[in-house]
Amino acid sequence: MDKAENKRAIIVGLFLAIGLVVFIVGVFTLGSQSKSFSKSIHISAVFDDVSGLKTGNSVWFSGVKVGSISKIHFIGPGQVDVRMSIDETSQQYVHRNAGVHIGSDGLIGNKIIVIDGGSPQAPVVQDGDVLLTEKLTSTDDMLKVLQQNNQNLLSITGDFKLLSRKILQGKGTVGTLMADSAVGNQFRNAMSNFERTSATAARLAANLERFSSKMNTKGGLADKMLTDTATFATIKSAANQLKQAAANTTEATNNLKTASDKFNRTDNAVGVLLNDPKAAAQIQSTLQNLQAGSIKLNDDLEAAQHNFFLKGFFKDRAKAKADSIKKANKQ
């Protein structure tokens, strides 16, 4: 074998050695990342939708990669069983009441399994356990909601555009108020009247409040009328007396009316005097005759006193009367 062939053999062997080293390093590196050379347990979770999850994707717990997805298969209609390999060193931190949901490695990264929650009081997961899944809003769901919101916003914008156009055209009550100056002035006048009415109502309420406070003042007439039974009894008695006086007045008025009615009739003496002119003239003539007769009688009596036969009688009678008066004065 010549020198050139030896050199070629050495180069080939060197390349083979380097390739073998790279292969071994790669195997250990990949094994380290997938934890192929560490002890692990297998747990699983059942999802309705795995959203593109693949075998080999990572399993995270509290922000730390603790395993990988080893198998994905259907177990029923709309049910997908995801089998996970969890590093045995992380087993003690994952509890059976922990929840499992599908997340993303970054905004648009690979899908991953995220284990979160769980309380220290619950037992630690064991090989073959099934964890409960949590339904989280996916990116598709958020996009659907966003799309629906965009449609609603577009509809609202269209309605507002149509409404604003009608307002500018003077249609509807608001449009009329904005376009018709007369209606606008009437509306302003109505608001002014409403404001004045509100002010009047406020003053009335204030006056009513002051009146009620005076009514509630201790010792006042209203307070005594409402709270003092003696005062109330006195007022009640006075009211009863006033009522009786009114009744008496009514009775007297009725009696006076009855008497007045009798005076206007001719079936009694007073009525005849007031209403019969002929009878009144007769009575007046009789009174005149009586007056004339009394005057004549006085004259006759005076003449009798000067009569010779009766003069002594009247003189003795006057003397006896004078003696009686004198005797009474002495006593």
Give a quick summary of the entry.
By secondary structure, the chain is an alpha/beta fold. It has helices at residues 3-33, 139-168, 172-179, 181-215, 221-227, 229-263, 269-275, 277-305, 308-330, and strands at 40-47, 58-61, 64-76, 79-87, 99-104, 111-116, 130-133.
Question: Can you walk through the features of this model?
Answer:
The structure is a single chain. The protein has 331 residues and is α/β, with parallel strands linked by helices. Helices cover 62% and strands 15% of the residues. Strands 1-4-3-2-6-5-7 form a seven-stranded mixed barrel. Strand 3 and strand 4 form a beta hairpin. The protein contains nine helices and seven strands; from the N terminus they run αβββββββαααααααα. It has helices at 3-33, 139-168, 172-179, 181-215, 221-227, 229-263, 269-275, 277-305, 308-330; strands at 40-47, 58-61, 64-76, 79-87, 99-104, 111-116, 130-133. The model has no long low-confidence stretch (mean pLDDT 76). The longest helix has 35 residues, at 181-215. The protein is rod-shaped and about 225 Å long. Helix 7 (269-275) crosses helix 8 (277-305). Among the domains are: 37-140; 161-215.
List the helices and strands and how they pair.
Elements: H1 3-33, E1 40-47, E2 58-61, E3 64-76, E4 79-87, E5 99-104, E6 111-116, E7 130-133, H2 139-168, H3 172-179, H4 181-215, H5 221-227, H6 229-263, H7 269-275, H8 277-305, H9 308-330
Parallel strand pairs: 1-7, 2-6, 5-7
Antiparallel strand pairs: 1-4, 2-3, 3-4, 5-6
Descriptive keywords:
331 residues, alpha/beta, 9 helices, 7 strands
